[in-house]
Description:
There is one protein chain. The chain is mainly β. It has one domain. It is 10% helix and 46% strand. It is built from one helix and four strands, in the order E-E-E-E-H. The protein has one helix at residues 50-55; strands spanning 12-17, 23-28, 32-39, 42-49. It has a two-stranded antiparallel sheet with strand order 1-2. A two-stranded antiparallel sheet has the order 3-4. The longest helix has 6 residues, at 50-55.
Amino acid sequence: xxxxxVCGKGAxxxxxxxxxxxxxxxxxxxxxxxxxxxxxxxxxxxxxxxxCLKSGKVERA
Length: 61
């Protein structure tokens, strides 16, 4: 679910690094919003990242 319908941005993976420099796995989640958009003259609910919303790649309904 956490994937942008416009650009395909999803979750990224990396490491938590403690003060003693031990590493454990972590996940960076994208800022995905559920948005009602205009698609082919009608409205459709899509999952879109905040970057695509700000840049105007999606027209809200």
